[in-house]
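Dear support,

We are seeing what looks like truncated structure output for some complexes. This example has two components. We would appreciate it if you could run it in full and send us the complete token output so we can diff it against ours.
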Amino acid sequence: MPVDFDISKYDNTTLKQMLSETNSADIAEWINDLEEKQAAIKLFRLLPKDEAADVFADLSRDMQESIIAAIQDYEISSIIDELFLDDAVDFIEEMPAGVVKRVLSNLPREKRDMINNFLKYPEGSAGSIMTIEYVDLKAEQTVAEAFNRIRRDGVDKETIYTCYVTDSARHLLGVVSVRTLLLSSPDDKIEDIMTREVISANTSDDKENVTNEFSKYGFLAMPVVDNENRLVGIVTFDDILEVQEEEATEDFEIMAAMSPSDEPYLKTKISRLALNRIPWLMLLMITAIISGHIIERFEHALTVMPILITFIPMLMDTAGNSGAQSATLIIRGIALEEITSADTWIVWFREVRVATLCGGALAAVNFVRILLFNRWEFLLAFSVSLALFCTVVIAKSVGCLLPQLAKLLKFDPAVMAAPAITTIVDAAGLLVYFGICKFAFGI
Amino acid sequence: MPVDFDISKYDNTTLKQMLSETNSADIAEWINDLEEKQAAIKLFRLLPKDEAADVFADLSRDMQESIIAAIQDYEISSIIDELFLDDAVDFIEEMPAGVVKRVLSNLPREKRDMINNFLKYPEGSAGSIMTIEYVDLKAEQTVAEAFNRIRRDGVDKETIYTCYVTDSARHLLGVVSVRTLLLSSPDDKIEDIMTREVISANTSDDKENVTNEFSKYGFLAMPVVDNENRLVGIVTFDDILEVQEEEATEDFEIMAAMSPSDEPYLKTKISRLALNRIPWLMLLMITAIISGHIIERFEHALTVMPILITFIPMLMDTAGNSGAQSATLIIRGIALEEITSADTWIVWFREVRVATLCGGALAAVNFVRILLFNRWEFLLAFSVSLALFCTVVIAKSVGCLLPQLAKLLKFDPAVMAAPAITTIVDAAGLLVYFGICKFAFGI
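Here is the complete output from our reference environment:
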């Protein structure tokens, strides 16, 4: 294409001919380079439908915005629908709120859902779960006008029960519920009855936090705004129910040492199920070898006093269970935002006290049992019970501190659950056990 | 609201102003966080009457009790009377007998009778979480009449967006949403626009099933009927969010071998935390002794070939982790009603295939590792790896079948989770291991 090309010098037939002979990336470059917006738009509209999308994807953001502003809704629909999903997402990522809304609302639902899923909004963000089918009102409208708008447009909206009041730049000014509208007089102005203290989410907020807000406030819907407080979408309670369920499932899976899966169990391929589990099992198997090595170091003692071997499963299992109890409560507390990083040492001190009670009870029962079943060997009973007590205290400390450490390091606390902790407390428990036995029996 | 807020620094007018600008859920959180009970009570009393009830519903049990103890009888009456019935019932269920008596005796007779009726619904039933503040309409009313009714009575209803159509004997005939009402003409008859195929819950239905219906249909509210299909209440989505959260927390706790607790971790007494854990730890400690006895039976073999001891932690941990993975997925699938009893053998066959893949991968790695680190003892490597493979298959079979068996026997499948399965598969794994070693090494 010629530099400083003046399209006004050519008729449409010639232009179409030229376009048909040119690669779409080149056309895009050419359009991008055109100084005159009107000329660029004219040229773009000469493109055949299927090529328009390809060209569009390569245009500058600026030019994309101008074109969207200039063309009809049905043309938008056909272009964006033709785009590869990642291009559509890239495009929508960069557009201002008004353009995003217009584009998304002109797409078939399925496509829109896909785009919403893949969009700029990081996975798991409020932006990634929001929808754009909300009712927006203007502050200066009356209640009667608001009802007219709801009656006219409401049929396509995901919820009509919470309406959002925005200014001309789409800044969120307030919310008003249909309940309030119904209880107001038809002549009341929206600005006089709306709630101005709106609790909203930012597009980048973690969807888990949004879920916690829903629980706390009993919301039906929550507005999602961009960094300039412009309304870009809403999250509705039915999405939140789903998120809450998914988040819990994810935590269950991570805590049981699996990579989380989006699909329901029966719909997941066998190979996928296996792949979600093998790396974790492998990792834990390899770390469990540490415990094996600790035992190896004390092989001599165990050969001299083989009775000591028989307490190993009990010590290991109790350590794992004690640690898992603490870890589970703390991980859940963090997820529900009941426990924050400010509580770290409070939580630890609580767990140490609980561990003292649990460990004491277990040690006492164990002491009596060994005395009864092992010919009153007092020293043996005492050593094993002391080891058990120490193991419980260590396991509960590790179990409550590791998830909080993970949180601090911006990892998912759930990863630090039962299996990982088991491996650590197993090793610690064995060291304590053998240490005590060595001292007690001089072996 | 500021952190570490000292209310003594502010005068009542300022405090009232601050309260009026704050959402009731946030006020409740703030009062809950106040260390000083007197300050908390003072602040609560500054709330306007209608907001006091909203805040009260969100307070911790502890704080509710303190406030009830501190205020006058007539104040109790007005607060509890203002509460939605489900919140009032929740509160009364948690309070000690003395407080309950004082509260009930200060309520109007009608309210007291209703609360007493609600207290009869079994814990965890739809009846126990429903509320009676719904809008009911008559089939022969017009849309205009319906709106009049909503305007007149709606202000006290928990939701107005779904209205219930009943006959004179309170039988549930249909539902109609405010959306439908808004989109209909004022002269339309309710019977012509209502939905007659109503999905309702029975008062005795498990609240977990009700939650699953909500997720499935995206309900805002669901009617609860008695055995004669008479409408007795509704369950609203905000209660469902809470139920879903509680159910997940409960499953987390049970699966980590604890008795579930209603209270948030930081509000639970140390002794209560310990009591929730000790019985389970004790039970599991005692069952772990079985593994100890199995080891004892093979003490001779272990003394002859002490290297065999060092593989025990790895075998036991892998068994526990493999079983926990399967159990977790199955328990979660059952809870979300993705897996039913008809799927038992399908699920088992899936898990066996997954186990073959997982076990195969682990055994292969383990085989190579032993060859490399244990002087190329082929028979040892083979025996341990074979035992590992068998253990994974057994663990996954047990892990998927036990929760389904529990379900069949009407136990909570979550009880059959990780810790219980660990104990069983530990024992099974050790037996397989020693059996193989005995055969291979003739010891």
